[in-house]
Design a protein that fits this description.
Order of helices and strands of chain A: H
Helix content of chain A: over 70%
Oligomer: heterotrimer
Distance between the termini of chain A: 78 Å
Largest interface: A-B, 31 and 45 residues
Number of strands of chain B: 0
Order of helices and strands of chain B: HHHHHHHH
Distance between the termini of chain B: 32 Å
Structural class of chain B: mainly alpha
Number of domains of chain A: 1
Mean pLDDT of chain A: 87
Helix content of chain B: over 70%
Chains: A mainly alpha, B mainly alpha, C mainly alpha
Low-confidence stretches of chain B: 190-198
Low-confidence stretches of chain A: none
Radius of gyration of chain B: 21 Å
Strand content of chain A: under 5%
Shape of chain A: rod-shaped
Largest sheet of chain A: none
Mean pLDDT of chain B: 88
Structural class of chain A: mainly alpha
Shape of chain B: globular
Chain lengths: 54, 249, 223
């Protein structure tokens, strides 16, 4: 292995980990917002007026 | 009231923090990317090859910032944890726990790049020298901390327990480092000072500064992102989250 | 008041220990098991065992102590005594200190007593035994005191298991380094006094700092 391959390997590790650090919070945010939306839908369907109440 | 103090108090309110984080995280990432771009260009192309180590010393430009961040994030985490334990501020609990994964990631990069650099330098992938050994222990502390946070059901208690551990860890880290240095001198003999950070010509230093700035900004971006996500998860059911999700409270 | 509380706690612990005499031998048995496994793994001949004997013995004692950590607070957490501790008129750190030292005396001390015998199994050079014993006597209380902090943080958790070991090991590193290092230094012909004095200083510091830290951890975990 020439020096170049080592340098490439090290920079690749850095890039991959930095990318992971960017992606994961965004995924977490999407999941949290999705969970909130589902919850809203659940609550709405639960309190929707039934046939008898109308 | 002093505007700065008022801003701090406002930040502690979950909906305000959500808006703050949503607004500033992208900027932190963008500026971090730009700074790292400049630094990487300098590290890979602008700076000439070292007369002793050839091109492999370029790894220094990502190894040193990562090592710095792994320690700085640990200290920051302990700082947030101390505030959270003393003043019971929910946001500081969230921020402390949001530091851990990024800190662990930087520690992993430090170990990996150190190992990759070590192969052409010393002919071995791993060496029990003080810096790598201490970094490995730091990684174990990060992982243990995240494990503790995940293992306790109540989120506030979990954050407080893990935060407490972070403070104990920060207090003991110098002791651990010192003991490993002593152990190293006893068993390995005095090795050459690590990774030639001793004599770096100032003309070779500027990419390092850009990389340090860039990784810091990138970290701020992911800190805000993770904290925002944790904040939303904890506050599910509150009116402001309901409004955010498009419902009527 | 504090002396009475300490005496009462010690008496209670000794009575409980007597009721479960068999359990008291378990750490020592685990250390023996560790020694056997190391010997089997390394090939069993004196030439390969003697150089590593002191380190293996240190590890056997450390790991046995790690396993025993689970019993430090669990019994009291389960039957509600821990809450009584927190409400007692005596400082919590005092009760923690007494309990930790009793725990050390009943789990680590038997193992240390067994070390000369285990040393024979590993062909430990006789000259290293005094330094080894000194380092263990100074180091194992520190392990108990540090371990108590971790045990306190995880006291409520049922599936603590590996997490306790993972959390305690970074805290154990300095003790292991100086403890096993003291013996290694003396084996190389260097002076072990420095390392032993450091262990002694560490013991004094942890006697002062660890119990309040553990008390704080108990309050946090029990909350």
């Amino acid at each position: 292995m020439s020096y170049r391959d080592y340098v490439i390997a090290a920079y690749a590790v850095f890039a991959i980990v930095m990318l992971w650090d960017y992606v994961v919070p965004r995924l977490q945010l999407r999941a949290a917002l999705r969970a909130a939306r589902l919850r809203v839908a659940r609550v709405a369907s639960r309190t929707a007026p039934t046939e008898l109440e109308r | 009231m002093n505007p700065v103090v008022r801003w701090f108090h406002q930040l502690g309110s979950p909906p305000y923090f959500d808006r703050f984080a949503a607004r500033w995280a992208p900027w932190a990432y963008l500026l971090g990317l730009l700074a790292m771009g400049v630094g990487l260009y300098g590290a890979l192309f602008a700076v000439p090859a070292d007369y002793q180590q050839g091109d492999s010393f370029r790894i220094l430009y990502i190894h040193v910032p990562s090592a710095w961040m792994s320690m700085a994030v640990f200290a920051l985490m302990a700082f947030y944890a101390a505030i959270a334990l003393v003043w019971r501020i929910k946001l500081c609990e969230i921020l402390a726990m949001a530091c851990a994964p990024s800190g662990a990631a930087f520690t992993l990069v430090t170990l990996a790049t150190g190992s990759i650099w070590g192969k052409p330098m010393w002919g071995t992938w791993w060496d029990w020298d003080p810096r790598l050994t201490t970094e490995l222990i730091v990684l174990l502390v990060y992982v243990g901390l995240m494990g503790l946070y995940a293992a306790i059901d109540d989120r506030r208690n979990a954050a407080r327990a893990a935060g407490f551990l972070a403070i104990v860890g920060v207090a003991l880290l110098p002791v651990i480092r010192w003991s490993v240095v002593w152990w190293n001198s006893l068993h390995q003999g005095q090795t050459i000072s690590l990774f030639g950070k001793s004599h770096m010509d100032p003309s070779m230093l500027w990419p390092l500064v850009w990389m340090i700035a860039g990784t810091k900004l990138w970290f701020v971006g992911s800190l805000l992102g993770r904290a925002r996500a944790d904040n939303l998860r904890r506050e599910t059911g509150k009116d402001w989250v309901t409004k955010l999700a498009g419902g009527t409270p | 008041m504090m002396r009475q509380a300490a005496a009462a706690l010690i008496a209670r612990d000794l009575r409980l220990l007597w009721a479960r005499r068999g359990d008291a031998l378990q750490p020592a048995l685990f250390a023996l098991l560790t020694v056997v496994l190391f010997a089997l793994g390394l090939g069993g001949d004196a030439k390969s065992l003697a150089p590593v004997a002191s380190a293996v013995l240190w590890l056997a004692v450390l790991l046995a102590g790690l396993l025993a950590l689970d019993s430090l607070f669990r019994g009291d957490a389960e039957d509600g005594s821990l809450e009584q501790w927190m409400l007692a008129p005596v400082p919590l750190w005092w009760l923690v200190l007494v309990r930790t030292l009793m725990h050390w005396a009943t789990t680590a001390l038997p193992v240390i007593v067994a070390v000369p015998l285990l040393g024979e199994l590993l062909h430990l050079p006789r000259a290293q035994l005094p330094v080894l014993m000194a380092s263990l006597l100074l180091g194992t209380p520190i392990l108990s005191l540090f371990g108590a902090v971790v045990a306190a943080l995880t006291v409520g958790m049922r599936r603590a298991g590996i997490l306790v070991a993972l959390l305690a090991l970074p805290l154990y590193v300095p003790v292991l380094v100086f403890g096993a290092g003291a013996v290694a230094a003396s084996a190389q012909g260097l002076d072990a006094d420095g390392a032993l004095l450091l262990l002694g200083a560490g013991l004094v510091i942890s006697l002062v700092l660890a119990p309040p830290t553990t008390a704080a951890a108990l309050r946090i975990a029990h909350n």
